[in-house]
Design brief:
The complex is a heterodimer of chains A (about 625) and B (about 100). Chain A is mostly helical and about 625 residues long. Chain A has 3 domains: about 220 residues, no CATH class; about 250 residues, no CATH class; about 50 residues. Helix content of chain A is about 70%, strand content about 5%. With about 100 residues, chain B is mostly helical. Chain B has a domain of about 60 residues: Orthogonal Bundle (Helix Hairpins). Chain B is about 80% helix and about 0% strand. In chain B, about 15% of the residues are buried. Classes of the chains: A mainly alpha (about 625), B mainly alpha (about 100). At the A-B interface, helix 24 of A face helix 1 of B.
Chain lengths: ~625, ~100
């Protein structure tokens, strides 16, 4: 059975190779071929999952060693796969949600001339992400990690004829590189510390290693996670990544890419458990990001960017939970899975709205769409209820557990983290309600005929999307509704993951009922506030100037300005100073030595005049000096 | 007679010779002044030999004469050759290796 693991990665990889090398003859069938390979990978995953369920909890982890990759003395890099409960969860999410997004893209990209290439890139994305979660050592994980970066670059910049898309792709790639450097340093540190980078030996040896080294490795892993998962301070690429086609956003935000950081931290749990300082850094990053993303999400009028802010915030929850240690890992992954469902559903819904509205993304030009797109409205609405944590839907179960775990951290820290998580829940409810109201409710801020259009209004003919798009949305909506409850029955999800991530019950200063009650209260406050602002009065078609915070949030809380002023300008000044130092000091020393030698030689050359009599004077003078010196020495 | 007077004479001759080498331009005269200096040295050697009562100084004087004779041969040949090619015997005109 374990021989099938390689097939998981191979299927989409073959699909990618076929589509990217196949040429024009595959243009017509490319979309179906790409989807077929994705579904094939999901089928293999389902078979492996069924097999895994049949075994006892201890025997579930299976390994497949393919070949020895770089055998050089003490440096042994192998290509091998490890499929345990954690990997399995990710594999099912990636291939399942990934396949749905493939199928949806058949409809969404129907009129794009380069769709064969698009599906090739999608397959490549899946293959890289599967390699990342299936690798049994950090070096192979790094290969998948870089592959995800490459595929995201290709997909974000898919509409490369738009300069904004090309720039966004470059930005995503460069910001990700910063994180990648962290991962490569972490792997090097592991090699010098443990002499290996295979998961098994490294994670088993953390007990005998100094805390300082583990903290260093942990912080480098955190940097890596920040890059891929768009956490503060490496979050700036995520908003711009919306330049890609909407299914790409769904894929990046739900099933792949941004979940890689959470996977990395959870997988390296043993290292973080033994390095409390690194854990503190992780929870700090998570708490800051969950508020940061939520605030950004409140101010955006672009529906995709509002959802991007929300992703940042939800991943912040996961990172926060992963930083809490054994009381949080399982909940981080549980929220990741439920988030995979509802965020994919929301993005596909947003894509469906854009599909019916001539690619208009500004929510101020939407309004009243629920009558025109009933299926999109219902599926988006269920995703909305799930993400805000409406009782009974999946987001409620997973987010509630994270808030509870945050309080259970204990002490002042617990209160701060729990408070931040609760506040985040309130803001989530606010901005998601805002998106919902601006898009599907209220007055139409567009016109069906040119004659009826008020000044500034667009003429639109909104229509429901074809079945190939709505069916994946319906499946995801069903997942958004039931996944959380399914996972929570008898703590099924926690029991499932416990052999890999270990689990400890947190002891919260507040009772579970009190926390649940307070999440519902803040949820209602957030929804009510949004209703007050966007539901009861008409939404202006042109964005009002807004408060200072609103304007800052529209500019992504000045993250780009910060990067520009501190990093870009700072870098420029640094290079200028270095160039100046190079010219004046280094070149100055070298050139100065040469010039002084030249000058000295010029003087010395003049002694060689060729006049015999001047030589004679020199000889006489020299002899006189010698004689005088001799006499003086005698005298002394 | 006090041998020191001979040393004074040797010093005087050497000075005249050195001054001649430095001041005169004619190669023949310069050459003669060099000979004067050599012979001033020879005189000094001989005087010292006499004063110390051994023959070392005199032997060195003979060596000097032999070397001076050889030097005269080579030196005069060079001067004649220079005069033939440049039609002058001024040492200042012969400041370059080429013509």
């Amino acid at each position: 059975m374990e021989n099938l693991i390689a097939l998981l990665v191979a299927a989409p990889l073959v699909g990618a190779a076929l589509l990217l090398c196949g040429g024009k003859r595959l243009d017509r069938t490319g979309a179906w071929i790409g989807s077929l390979f994705a579904v094939a990978s999901f089928a293999v995953a389902a078979v492996l999952f069924a097999d895994m369920l049949g075994k006892s909890a201890e025997d579930r982890a299976v390994h497949q060693h393919l070949f020895s990759w770089i055998p050089v003395g003490g440096f042994q890099a192998d290509v091998g796969f490890q499929l345990d409960q954690l990997s399995m969860t990710f594999v099912l999410l990636i291939t399942g949600v990934g396949s749905l997004i493939h199928i949806y893209s058949i409809g969404y990209m129907e009129h794009d001339e380069r769709r064969r290439r698009f599906f090739g890139y999608l397959n490549l994305f899946l293959a890289a992400m599967l390699l990342l979660v299936l690798a049994d050592n950090y070096l192979l994980l790094y290969v998948g990690w870089e592959g995800v970066g490459l595929a995201s670059y290709l997909l974000i910049g898919f509409w490369q004829h738009k300069p904004s898309a090309a720039t966004a792709a470059k930005k995503a790639f460069l910001v990700n590189r910063v994180g990648d450097v962290g991962l490569s340093i972490a792997i090097m540190l592991m090699f010098t510390t443990f002499g290996t980078f295979a998961f098994g030996p490294v994670l088993a040896a953390t007990g005998d290693t100094s805390e300082g080294k583990l903290t260093a490795i942990g912080l480098m892993l955190l940097l890596a996670a920040c890059g891929k998962s768009a956490q503060v301070p490496l979050q700036s690429w995520l908003g711009d990544a919306m330049e890609g086609p909407t299914p790409v956003s769904a894929l990046i935000h739900a099933a792949t890419m941004v979940t890689a950081g959470v996977y990395l931290i959870t997988r390296s749990g043993a290292i973080f458990n033994a390095a409390p300082d690194a854990q503190t850094a992780v929870v700090a990053v998570g708490a800051v990001t969950l508020l940061f993303g939520a605030i950004v999400g409140c101010a955006k009028d672009d529906i995709k960017k509002a959802l991007a802010g929300s992703t940042m915030s939800q991943i912040g929850y996961m990172i926060l939970a992963a930083g809490l240690g054994p009381i949080g890992y399982a909940f981080a992954i549980m929220h990741l899975v439920t988030h995979g469902f509802f965020k994919a559903g929301l993005f596909l819904g947003a894509g469906s709205v854009m599909h019916g509205m001539n690619d208009e993304v500004d929510m101020r030009h939407y309004g009243g769409l629920r009558k025109y797109m009933p299926v999109t409205f219902v599926t988006f609405g269920l995703g909305y209820l799930a993400i805000i944590g409406f009782p009974g839907l999946s987001g409620f179960f997973s987010k509630d557990k994270i808030i509870e775990a945050a309080f259970a951290k204990g002490g002042t820290e617990g209160w701060i983290l729990g408070g931040a998580a609760l506040l985040g829940a309130a803001i989530t409810a606010f901005y998601m309600t805002r998106v919902m109201l601006m898009t599907f409710f209220g007055e139409k801020r567009w016109a069906e005929t040119p004659g009826a259009a008020a000044p500034g209004q667009q003429v639109q003919h909104p229509h429901e999307s074809p079945k190939v798009m709505t069916i994946p949305m319906i499946v995801l909506a069903v997942g958004s509704v039931f996944a959380g409850a399914l996972f929570s029955v008898n703590e099924a999800f926690v029991t499932w993951l416990e052999p890999v991530t270990s689990f400890a019950h947190g002891h919260s200063p507040l009772s579970a009922t009190a926390i649940t009650a307070s999440t519902i209260v803040v949820l209602l406050i957030g929804v009510g506030l949004a209703w007050q602002m966007y539901g009861r009065k008409p939404v202006p078609a042109v964005a009002p100037r807004g408060s200072l915070l609103t304007r800052a949030a529209r500019r992504d809380l000045l993250q780009d300005d910060f990067n520009h002023i501190v990093l870009v300008r700072g870098g420029e000044h640094l290079t200028r100073t270095l160039v100046y130092l190079d010219h004046s000091v280094v070149d100055g020393a070298v050139n100065g030595t040469a010039a002084s030698m030249g000058g000295l030689s010029g003087r010395l050359r003049q002694l060689q005049s060729g006049f015999v009599r001047s030589y004679a004077v020199q000889m006489l003078g020299g002899a006189a000096v010698l004689v005088a010196a001799t006499l003086l020495m005698r005298g002394v | 007679m006090n041998p020191v007077y001979y040393l004074y004479l040797a010093a005087l001759l050497f000075t005249i010779g050195a001054a001649g080498v430095l001041i005169r331009r004619n190669a023949i005269v310069v050459f003669m002044c060099i000979e004067l200096m050599l012979n001033a040295c020879n005189l000094a050697f001989v005087v010292f030999s006499r004063m110390h009562g051994n023959l070392d100084g005199q032997i060195i004087a003979f060596f000097t004469m032999v070397v001076a004779a050889a030097e005269v041969v080579v030196g005069l040949a060079i001067i004649v050759s220079i005069f033939r090619t440049r039609h002058t015997a001024s040492v200042d005109d012969a400041s370059l290796m080429k013509l």
